[in-house]
């Protein structure tokens, strides 16, 4: 049964850059902190393990090659010891966890988010459908099966990464699945400050807020922080330090009718935001505007959605292939 009020948390913190073991330890500590403050659900930024690959925005691909192997080596698999350790922490503290990580599968990496329940079960892992711009030099794409909303003891929980919140059709698909709590994970709003406004806090927090109001869902918008450790690793010139400013943490929690439910932290500060999510607000918001229900016009506009997995190889018996060709 859906809980009427859920205490939720959104993390604002700097990752342990390109260090898988330290990153998992940090994440487990933050899980314990959130649970200790009464949270039933805690959410983390995009690619919190092993941190967002900021080098892709700072210089040429040739310069960035120095980070590629290390980043891959410190990325997680979805069924490895690190995932088991995080799941054990969720079970120990009886808390639901949604976190972003760089997923290593074979020779490829993906911008993934894991859902773990308070019994320590990994409910699902989903991948970002389309990495943004230069992210595609590092990460592969997800498929339709990565549009997911999961029934939990807390309610229906879904998640997207970063600029997936700029994709109207993807958002509409998520709304149609009855999402009640949405985790919108962001890496940090630190790059190209003052020049590329679409990468900044004002625009991207507006996207999170719009998601809440359009979908009549609570939105947890955890956001990473860029600190001195990131500058030491990625910025070998003063120019790069200006391209990637320190700070950039703008974590928010929004209500389904557009309210701000937690006092934001300073952009340089690390911490956790908390809010009590009163599900009666969803019913009130949907009574006015439900874009996948009474406020829709499917006779005029509707969405075609393919949620099937798209594996690169499909095993088929020879007879089945022959019958398909003859048909």
TrEMBL record:
| Start and end residues of each CN hydrolase domain | 6-279
Write down a Pfam family by its short name: CN_hydrolase
Entry-linked PROSITE patterns: CN_HYDROLASE, NITRIL_CHT_1, NITRIL_CHT_2
Q: Which GO terms describe its biological process?
A: detoxification of nitrogen compound
Q: Which residues form a coiled coil?
A: none
Q: Which CDD domains match?
A: nitrilases_CHs
> Which molecular function terms from Gene Ontology are attached?
nitrilase activity; nitrile hydratase activity
User: Entry's PANTHER family?
Assistant: CN HYDROLASE DOMAIN-CONTAINING PROTEIN (PTHR46044:SF1), NITRILASE (PTHR46044)
Q: Which family does it belong to?
A: Belongs to the carbon-nitrogen hydrolase superfamily. Nitrilase family.
Q: What is this protein called?
A: Unannotated protein
């Amino acid at each position: 049964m859906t809980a009427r009020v859920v205490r939720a948390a959104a993390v604002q913190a700097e990752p342990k850059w390109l260090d898988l073991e330290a990153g998992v330890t940090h994440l487990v500590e933050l899980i314990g902190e959130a649970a200790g403050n009464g949270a039933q659900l805690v959410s983390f930024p995009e690619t919190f393990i092993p941190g967002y690959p900021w080098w892709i925005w700072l210089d040429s691909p040739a310069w960035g090659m120095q980070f590629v192997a290390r980043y891959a080596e410190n990325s997680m698999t979805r069924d490895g010891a690190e995932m088991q350790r995080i799941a054990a922490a969720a079970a120990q503290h009886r808390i639901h966890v949604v976190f972003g990580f760089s997923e290593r599968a074979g020779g490829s990496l993906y911008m993934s988010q894991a859902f773990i329940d308070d019994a320590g079960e990994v409910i699902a892992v989903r991948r970002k459908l389309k990495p943004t711009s230069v992210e595609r030099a590092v990460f592969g794409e997800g498929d339709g099966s990565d549009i997911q909303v999961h029934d939990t003891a807390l309610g229906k929980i879904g998640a997207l990464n970063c600029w997936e919140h700029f994709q109207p059709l993807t958002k509409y698909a998520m709304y149609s699945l009855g999402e009640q709590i949405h985790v919108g994970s962001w890496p940090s709003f630190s790059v190209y400050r003052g020049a590329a406004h679409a990468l900044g806090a004002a625009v991207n927090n507006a996207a999170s807020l719009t998601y809440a109001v359009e979908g009549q869902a609570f939105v947890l918008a955890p956001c990473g922080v860029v600190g001195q450790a990131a500058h030491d690793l990625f910025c070998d010139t003063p120019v790069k330090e200006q391209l990637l400013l320190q700070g950039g943490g703008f974590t928010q929690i929004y209500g389904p009718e557009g309210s701000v439910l937690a006092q934001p932290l300073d952009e340089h500060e690390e911490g956790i935001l908390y809010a009590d999510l009163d599900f009666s607000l969803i019913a009130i918001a949907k009574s006015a505007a439900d874009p996948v229900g009474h406020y829709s016009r499917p006779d005029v506009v509707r969405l075609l959605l393919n949620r099937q997995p798209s594996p690169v190889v499909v095993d088929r018996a020879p007879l089945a292939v022959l019958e398909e060709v003859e048909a």
